Structures are given as C-alpha cells and as structure tokens.
Batch of 4 targets.
Target 1
Amino acid sequence: MVMDKRSVNNPRYRRSDPIVPKRPRAGLERNDSIDEILRMKTLHDKFRSLNSKHKVRYSPIKMVGKGGFGQVFECTADVTNSGGYEMPQVVALKTETGSEIKLEMKVLLKLKNHNHFCELYDFGQITPGYSFIVMTLLGPNLSTIRKKMPTKQFTVSTSIRAGLQMLMAIEALHGAGFISRDVKPSNFAIGRPNGNRRMVYMIDFGISLVYKDQNGPVKLKRSEMTWRGTNRYCSLGHHKKHLPSPKDDVESWFYSLMELCVGELPWQYLGKHQKAETCKAKEVVRTTKREYFLGSCPFEFDQILGLIDRMTRDSIVEYHKIYASLTRCLIRDKVDFKDPYDWEYMLSSYQCSSSTAASSDRIETLDKSLYQ
C-alpha cells in the first residue's frame, strides 16, 4: 500500500508538513493570478453574503489600489437569479486581512444611503482571516488629483467646496458614532465620469474607532492611544498620546484643507518617523509662524484654526460655525456652488478649445490620466 507522506500513520510524517493549504497572501506578486488569489466562486456557493438569495460572480479587471493590508480591484459583477436585486455592472472589490475590513463594513452599513459614502453591495470570506467587501467604484482621490494640477494645488473655490463636502462626511461619521483617526486627502475620492464626479466620498475606515453608541460615550482604553494614522495630518492631541476624539478628525481635516489650498504643509518634508519634529512644527505655526502658515489663505482659515484649538476632547464640534466661515469665503469671492471644480475645468477647457477629433483624443487622454 502506498502511504501518503502526510498520513499520521506514516512514521516519516512530520507535524510541520502543511496538511492545510496556506492562506492566500494579502500582497500580490508579479506572477500571481488575480483569479487565483480571489478564488472567483459565486458567493451563493462559497461565501457568506449579504444577498444570499442571489448568485454573483466577480471578475477582476485591474487593481486600482493597494495598501498595507490588502488591495482594491475594479471588477465586473455578473448577477444571476436577481429577482429585482440591482448592482452596478462595475464595482470595487476590496480584499483585506485582519479585523480592518470588519470595521469598514460596520461603517458602511451604518452610513448606508448617505451621499458621501460608498454603498456596500456585498461581502464574503475567501479563507479564514482573508475577506472582501464589494462597494461603489470611485474615481481618484483628492491627493492624486491635486498632484495632477499644473500648480500642484487647487483654487480657493475648489478647495473650500471640496473641504465643505469632506467636513460633511466627517460630521456624518461622527454622528454614526465613529472616529476616523486617518483623515487626509487620499482618503477622499470623487465619483466616476459616468456617475457624479462632483461628489466627494470618504473612504478607508480600517483604523476607525467607535467612540459612542446608543447608550452614550464609549469608554476608550489606554491601549487605543497606540499610534495610528498619518504623521503629516494627525492632530496635536494624537502626537501627545491623548485619547482620540472627534476634535482630532476635524484638526486633521484642517491640515488637509490647507494642503489642498496651498499645495503643501510646512512639515511636509519631515519623514513619517520624525513625529516629535512634526509635532513641534504644528505648534510653531500656531504662534510665531502663524502668519507664514495662513498668510496666503482667506482670513476665515485663521478663525477656523482658532475654533479648533479652543476645543477640548469632550467638546461638541461646532460644525455649523466652520460651515458658516467657509461659506462666507465663497460669497465674498462670488463663487457659485454649481461652478466647475478644478478637475472638471481641466476637461472643459480642452472641450472648448476645439471640436476636432484631435481635441477629443486629448480629452480622452486627460480623462484617463485623471482616473488611473
């Protein structure tokens, strides 16, 4: 009898032999097949699903994003036996390991049907500890778009209107009981060309934190002061290891707004490990370098920073005062909310220049450049 070397009856069997196949890696290697990594089966047959009555097959087109815990793929969704169930033909499928994706699901479910958040269509598990969610496919993030601008910055009009949308999303997140802990331009994206490219969406909630529930504030643990987020945008309180609060997200939003409007932050060239130096720089721009920091911005920005700095961890964020300050900027500059955003203006300027086929090619090239 031929004995399988993995049989426990085989005297040469070693317990270290991998009887169970190894879990798929979170990172894709150059020679890996996307189909193999995602194991494209129908959710009805294979995975736990929000829509267990319907069979859905997701076919990856390309990778559109990659982070420390997983990837985001643009996929086609083939729904059979829909029974009236509607899903876009093209969706985003995000894969992750660990508990981060559970937080993402929790946030998207809580904020279902909100304008500034993706719609969660489905979720499943590939292997234990390796899961995916299916949601709205978006366009590029604000950081990517800003860097494609000729001056590497947005106009004041676009910065403020995008900033207002960002703050609306943050307010909704806080209202649902979550703190982001990672507010930054790259965590806000615009809609697709065939959707609403004027809408700004908040994304990536893998390190978010529940700070209140139906019973009121949740007591946070000291372990939750562990460094999370991005050095460039995090709040002074986070630098000083204070317990997180909504104020931290609003302060990070302000730094993001400044970067969109000015093109860079004074501490931009400090490395991610230079936390003490970055903290010091953020303190200096509030005192001796305040005019240098805010000099090229509308004076309302100084008022907003003052409002944020007067807040404590337990303060209720006065979003309405920030909205009012930014709205005054737009009124003074005679900006209409219906005016094109900078990314729209880039395309419209090409369209107005000529109606020739060559111009159409330039528009298509620019559009692809923006959305890739």
Target 2
Amino acid sequence: MLMSEFGSTAADTSTLGQWSGSSMLDQDTEKLLRTNGSHGKMSDFHFLITGGYRPEKNNLVKYVVSVRSEQERKFFGDNHFCGGAVISTKVILTAGHCLYKGTSRIKASRIRIVAGTPRRLQRTDQTQIREVSSAKPHPKYSPRQLKNDIGLLLLKKDLSPDGEFVQIITLSSSSPPPGLKCTVVGWGTVIQFGPTPDEAVNGDVAVNDKSFCSSLEGFSKGMICASDANDHEVDSCQGDSGGPLMCNSIVVGVVSFGAGCGEPKSAGVYTDVSFFGDWIKSNSSTRNEVAVTLSFVLIHLLMLLIHLSIYVY
C-alpha cells in the first residue's frame, strides 16, 4: 500500500510527480527529498501495501484511521494522505513526516481524522470524523531526515470506540523480536505509482533482524524493519505512511519509509514504538485533561483538609 500530497508522505523521488489525486507530492517536499535525507540523498526512498490482500472480515482496520486534509477535492475520501492508529479516544499515533509539507509544519486546523471507515470513499453510520486540536511531531524530527519519525494528533472531540469499527490499540512496551509475524494495514497504493484503493488492504510481514535492517540506507536507532521473505512484493507504500505495524493486535511500529515498494532484498522501515514510549505517554494529554486532573486532585485535597479540620475540632 502506498503515500500522499498533503504531508511529506511521498514516493520514489526519481519519478515524483507521476501520481494524481492524493498521491502527488507538493513541490516543496519533492525538492526537499530529492536533495536531502539521513545520508544526504533520498533518490530511491518511499514513505511507504503492495502485494497485500483484503480479508473477508478485516479485524485490524478498526485500529486504523485515515488522516486527511480539511477539505475534500471532489468527493468524500479523496483527501487522504496518511494513516494513523487509535491509541486513546483522543490521541492518534502517526508518522512525524505526515505532519509536514516540505519544511513547514501543517497546522492542526487543516487536518481531519476519519475513523470507522474500512472503505476510504464511503461514509456510513459508523464513520467518525474529528477535528484536530494539536499536531505534535517528535521535537527531534527533521523534515530533512527520517530519524525520530513519529507524531501525535490530539483530537478536539473523543472518538467513540465500539469494538467493531473503532477500537483503541495497545502500544508495545518492547521492540519486537526477529521473525515475529505482523500486519500493516492502510489505503496506500496497491502497486508502485498505482491508484489509491477504496478498501483498506492488509500486508503480512515478519520483523527482520537488526543486522539486516542496519544494511538499509537511512536505518538508525529507534527504527525496525519488516518484510516477507517469501514474497518481496508485500510491503507498505505511498499512502500508508503513519499507519501501524501490528503484531497480535499490538502496535509495534509506524510506517516510515522504504527503498521502493516491495523491492527485492529490501524491507519497509518503521519507527519503533517502544523506543518512543515515554515521549508518547508524556505528550498524549491535552491541556484540558491536565486541568481536569489537577482540579480533581485539588478538590480531593480540599475535602481532606476539611475532614481533618472537623476531626481536630
């Protein structure tokens, strides 16, 4: 599955500009990726499910949201540009590069979250659309590199999990071991430079060992990589960026980048969720939630003081 125009979620920069609709990069991002990157070049990189499948009942898509620009172009769903994972009723986990257009941060007011929609272009009674109050890329993420490629979207209004169409997913507390079977889900293009699908697609992969991952250009600390040793075409791709890599219904990674989509002897690279666990937890509260918590504590302290005063007298 593949990436997009609105955020820095793109594709092979040697052939940029060939897509239409939500898969085309903005010119600033295209220029940036042609000339920069963690090794000074990004000519073969994608922010990447190619080779995927659609199960009869997709039990994983309930954890995934479509990250979209604020306005549709012509019809519902044509403004999808990234994926994300529901980690609380008010917080979406995504990639840092999804929150940038070129070197500029995308304003939270310009982002919408759509949950409960296995089909990108179809609005149903289960569809939940939310505005974003805060878009938080990791403070050490740079649009000129791919390190610390993680971000959070805080919603103005809580999602309503129903267990079938929308559900909160657990964050991994440790790096996944090599060989662990996982699945990536998204609405990215199903073939490189191909069209963006309507229905969410799954891709089954296995976590690779660090020695193999370390041989990939751009791979560094805080990343994991995964692929299908029997079918190299199974991979994440344009439009899948920011979506979750899930193992046993636990999110272990965030789709970040890869050398092509489903290229031989390569793998998709994902941000290691456990590596950024402390940052995720410390940045997942809104100001209102903090204020409510403080008020709750103060009220209880006041009640305790009143109780003690009565007891003393």
Target 3
Amino acid sequence: MTVRQRKAPPVTTETRRLIRSRRAALDNGERDEYLRVNRLCRAAIRRDCVSHYTGRVKIQITVTQETSFIVLHSRNMTITKRELHTSDDSVNVSITRLLLYPERDQVYLSVNESLQLGQNYTLSFEFNYTLREALEGFYLSHYTAANGSKRYLATTQFEPNAARAAFPCFDEPQLKATFQLAMVRHESHTALFNTPRRSTADLDFYLGAGIKQDDFFETVRMSTYLVAFIVSDYAHISDTTDGSE
C-alpha cells in the first residue's frame, strides 16, 4: 500500500513535574469529574503496508467541572498538531502547553482559560508513528502465502489498555464513548471495523492511483479496549441477520 505521509516536526516536550501535580485526578478514577467523553471519537488513519501510520482523531467532550487542564493517554507516537474548540466552532481555545509523561502514557494539555461547566468541546489531534510487530495497539503482522511470499497486514489488540498506542484517547474502561472510523487503504486491501462500512471514496486525485477511504458506521457506546480494526488482503465473507451485517 502506498500513501503519502504528511511530514511535521514534533510539538511535544517531555516533562514530569507538572503532570505529577495532577495525580489525584488520575490515579483514583476521578478524571471524569472534570471531563466526560460526550458522544464520539473519530479516527482517520492513513498507512502504507510497511510501517508508516498517520492519523487524526476528534474527541467530543463535555465539561462537568470547570478546569484549565486536560489529561489523556498516548503511547509511543508523535503528536504533530492539537486543537481545542467549542463543538459549534464558535470559540477556539488556545492550548498553551502540551506535555508528556511517558511513564504513565499521559498527555497533559494546559489551556489559557477555564473550560466552562456544561460546555461541549471538540479536542483534535494529528499524529504519526511507526508500526511495529508488537502484538498490541495498532501493529504490523505478516503471514506466508502459498507461493512462499511474505504478506503484511495491520491489525489491533487494545485489551486491556493499548488503545492509547493507536490514537490519543481517554483510555480507561469506565470512560465509554461511541466511535467512528475512516480508514485509507490501497484497493488491493480490505479494511474492517467493529461496524459495517458505510461508504467508500476514491482518493486517487489526492493520494495516488488505487487509494480508497472507507467510512464506517458509528459504534454503540463502549470502552476503548473494545475498538478493533484491520487492514489486510484476507478474503472474507459476511452475512446479514435481523438487518445487521
């Protein structure tokens, strides 16, 4: 699979001290006193069949207590862009600092004004990393075809807490959300998700010959570790029962 990967320098800076000052909001499951994952986590993923992974994620959140910081999870990836705005796009909120705490897989965002009680916000990230044969997160795997050639695929294993290794998220089982996925792939591959495919678009003009984007229906409300997707050249069959594929 061949996909153009957007190049951008890292914007993150590693630190520990400031995040540790917020541990009470993290260690005892109280994070949702400040923020609640409201409705939807959208991920758009672009990758080639060797190692490169580029994605965007949008997380809709509701503020349940005024706060000037957000802490969520991310593991072994480079965040190249981050934005925060009200869900109606009427107000952009400046993110003054983005700090990493790798030992706890945490990303700390400090904003220049308090997030308002009851307000809905959309938190967006662009990110990239290299797929590894690691059996967790979104990882690279392979099999040997009948002709002896090595064939690659990329798939997921998020349980118990490896969704954070695929995209930035609130990766705690009690913080449930609904999820939508858009996957960019080569036409020789198939993408599968928790839900049926809603549509497929040609991206030849933007990304080169044979590149497709699959958009999938929104999931039910669930924990991050239940999210699953795969890009492969596997043959597959499907059926419909009571109107569901």
Target 4
Amino acid sequence: MIYEHNLSSSIVKLGPLEPRWYALMYILGFVFLY
C-alpha cells in the first residue's frame, strides 16, 4: 500500500496528463486485479 501511495504521488508530481502515466496505471491496475 505504501509503494502504491508513493507511486501515485510520483505520478502527480511528474505530470498526470502525460499519456504514458495513464498507460502505466492501466498496466498496474490490470496486474493488481490478477
């Protein structure tokens, strides 16, 4: 949970509007679901 929170914070700092972060979150979400 701590890692996920830090990752979210990093994404916000680096730029949430960049397409590659949406792709990264999609991939991570897919992995966490399975």
